Prior knowledge:
By secondary structure, this protein is mainly alpha-helical.
Amino acid sequence: MSLVISYTLFAIIATIANIAAQDLFINFYPGPYALLLSVGVGTLIGLIVKYLLDKRYIFRYRTTGIGHETKIFILYVAMGGVTTLIFWGFEFGFHFIFEDKLMRYLGGVIGLAIGYWIKYQLDKKYVFVSKEIEC
């Protein structure tokens, strides 16, 4: 499978995980700050799914121990900081403009698509830069 197709497929999987986690959370917890908490939970779930897929299948990267794994994950999260702001900007922007759950999720999907494209560039340059292996 080509890199573009694989990365796109994994971005779709992580997006589905993110949006599904948000929807499940908000359906089970309708209390104070439910929207903010649901977006946070979805972001965390999507981040973990995407990290595992990118590390193994996109960058074919193997860490050498828990310390190295932690360092790489922290770098991955740091590179995701800016892209997360893009994602949240679209999702919350659509929420406040349209006041509709489906439109909020559409904004989230658009923000994630833009963010994942930028994130690939950052990860390639700053995160997964050595110790590539054939898996």
